Amino acid sequence: MSQTTQQNASSSEELAATAEEMSSQAEQLQQAMAFFKLDAGHGLRSAAGKPPKAGATKRHAPRTVGTLALAAVGAPDEADFARF
């Protein structure tokens, strides 16, 4: 049980350090992005601001390879097969 507690504490410390590093990187990114200016009225939008348009993504049915395509390739030649 002591080993599990130590592992949990170690994982917790590692996650805290990672979170701090990510926070620092996010701040640096915000400072770098502050360089870019937008026209009035074109401010930040949230990702959930607009729902996706209906039919915006097209999905295609999966294709299957027919026997004609397999016949063109040909069956594998077992003469080259080496048994080990």
UniProtKB/TrEMBL annotation:
UniProt-listed InterPro entries:
MCP_chemotaxis
Write out the ranges of the annotated region (Disordered): 1-26, 43-62
> Keywords of this protein's UniProt record, alphabetized?
Chemotaxis
Low complexity: bias regions = 9-24
Keyword Manganese included in the entry's annotation: no
Keyword tRNA processing included in the entry's annotation: no
GO biological process terms held by the UniProt record = chemotaxis
Name of this chain's protein = Methyl-accepting chemotaxis protein
Q: What is the lineage of its organism?
A: Eukaryota, Viridiplantae, Streptophyta, Embryophyta, Tracheophyta
